[in-house]
Amino acid sequence: MTLTEKLLARAAGKARVVAGENIWVKTDVLMTHDVCGPGTIGVFKREFGKDARVWDRQRVVIIPDHYIFTADSKSNRNVDILRDFAREQSLPYFYDVIDDPSGHWKFDASKGLLRRQYGSQYAGVCHAALPQKGHTRPGEVLFGTDSHTCMAGAFNEFATGIGNTDAGFVMGTGKLLIKVPETMRFRLEGRLQPGVMAKDLILHIIGEIGFDGATYRAMQFDGPGVASLSMDDRMTVANMAIEAGGKNGIFPFDARTAEYVESRTRLNGTRSHYEPVEPDPGQSFCYELVVELDKLEPTVACHPDPGQRKRAKDMRDVRLDRAYIGSCTGGKTSDFVEFARVIRGRRVAIDTFGVPATPEIVHELQTTRWDGQTVWDIMVHAGVQMTENAGCAACLGGPVDTFGRMNTPMKCISATNRNFPGRMGHKDSQVFLASPATVAASALAGHVEDPRALVGA
Ligand code: SF4
Q1: Residue 293 and residue 193: Cα distance in Å, rounded?
Q2: Residue 113 near ligand 1, beta carbon < 6 Å
Q3: Which end of the chain offers a freer environment for a tag, N or C, measured as fewer CB atoms within 10 Å?
Q4: Which residues pair with 188 in a beta bridge?
Q5: Which of 339, 341, 367, 370 is nearest to 353 (CA)?
Q6: Residue 151 DSSP symbol
Q7: In the prediction, which pLDDT does 456 show?
Q8: Which CATH architecture describes the domain 181-295?
Q9: What is the 8-class DSSP label of residue 94?
C-alpha cells in the first residue's frame, strides 16, 4: 500500500484498502474557520439538534483567519458566531481574535491596516497555525473546511479539505465516508540550488501534470531529495496539491518531522502520541515522475491557472503593477527570510505588500537580526508595506478594504498559491504565482525577474 492507502486503512480499522474503495474513516482532527465555520455549525445543529454536543471537543479546532481585518460587519459577526459556539461547547482549541470570551470582534479601521489588532490567542492562517499550535501529527486524519488543508500532508498525515455538510457530519460523529484515492508518486532527487525554492518545485510539478492532473488523487512526494527539504518547504509543496486537483499530498516521516511535531506538541500541550506510516516495499502507483531538484529553475505560474508554467527568465517582458508576499503557502518565516535576502539594501520599484501568516511569524521577523537589522526592518526599508495583522488578507480577495486587495485591474506577482480570475480581488486582474525569491526580484525590477543573480550569501 502507498502512504495514503496505509494511513486510510488504519483509520478505517482495516488490514488493507485499495484505490476506489469507499470506506468510513475516523477523524483525528476537524478544523474550521470563520468563512465555513458558521455554515458547518448550522448543518451540525440542524442535523443533530440545537443542544447536540460535538463528538470530541479535544479534536475540534476553530481558527478564524480569513476575513478578519476588515470593517465588513458580516465578516466580524462570523467570528462572534464561532466564539459563541466555542463557549457553548467548551472547546479548548478556539483561537479567538480577541481575548474577551464574551466580547464582540470589531475591526477598528481608524487604527489603519498595519498595526496589530488581535489578542493573545489569535493564531493566524489556519494551515500555518495548525502545526505551530501542535495539531498536526504523523499518521493522523485531518479534515478541514478549506481546500488547502492538504498542507498538513507535510507531516505524514492524511489531510484534506471538505465542505460544510461533511464537516457538520464529522462534528457530530467523528467519521466520514471517503473513496480511497489512487496515488501519484513524485520521486525527488538531488537538492534545490540557491535562488530556487520549494515553490518552484511544486509549480514545476503542476506545470507537468496540469491544474487538474491529480484530480481526486493522492500526491506522494518521496525519494532521497526529501531529506534536504525543511518542514516549511514540505508545507509549501503539500499545500499546493489541491492546485493540481489532488485529494491530498503526503510526505514520508523522518527525523525532521519528529523534531518539529514533538517540539510543537510539547510547547502547546497538545496530544503528543503519534504513529507515523512507513512506506511499504511494493507500492502501486497510477503515475510516477522523477524530479531532479538540481535542475529546477525559478518558475512562474501565469494567469489564469496554477498549471500555466514558464521559467521566470523567459518572462522579463511582463511588466508588473504589484508584488505580494503572504498566505499559508508563502507567508512563513523562511519565505520572508528568502525575500529579504534578495531585497536587502535595495528598494522595490512597485507597490509591494507583506502579510505574515501567523502572529508567531510576525514576532520571528521582528526579532531575527542580520547585521543588527531585523528581517522586518529590511523589508520596510526596502519599501515593502508590512502588516502585523497576520491572516489570509488579499490571498483570496476578501472585502474591499482588505490589505493588499486588487481593487482595479492590475498585474501582480504573488507568493500565494492560487491565481484563477478574481482570486485576489478584481476579476480582470492577473496573478502570477512564484517563489518569494522570484517575487522579491520582480518587485525590485518592476517586471518578472529571475532571482538567482541577486541571491547573496
Ligand atoms: S492564506 Fe490563502 S490559501 Fe491559505 S487559507 Fe488563507 S485564503 Fe486560503
Answers
A1: 8
A2: no
A3: C
A4: 291
A5: 339
A6: G
A7: 63
A8: 2-Layer Sandwich (3.30)
A9: B
Q: Could you tell me which residues are beta bridge partners of residue 310?
A: 300
**Which segments in the chain show pLDDT lower than 70?**
456-457
Q: How far is the CA of 146 from the centre of ligand 1 (A)?
A: 8
**Predicted pLDDT of residue 452:** 97
**Where in the chain is CATH 3.30.499.10?**
3-105+112-177, 181-295, 299-454
CA distance 317 to 11: 51
Grid coordinates given for 321 = 503593477
Ligand 1 centre to CA of 328 (Å) is 6
DSSP state of 417: S
pLDDT, one tens digit per residue, over 106-147 is: 999 999 999 999 999 999 999 999 999 999 999 999 999 999
Pocket-testing residue among 127, 242, 402, ligand 1, by greatest number of atoms within 8 A of Cβ: 127
Does 150 contact ligand 1 (Cβ within 6 A)?
no
40 C-alpha to ligand 1 centroid (Å): 18
Q: Could you say which architecture CATH assigns to the domain 3-105+112-177? A: 2-Layer Sandwich (3.30)
**What separation in Å is there between the alpha carbon of 353 and the centre of ligand 1?**
16
pLDDT given at position 148 = 98
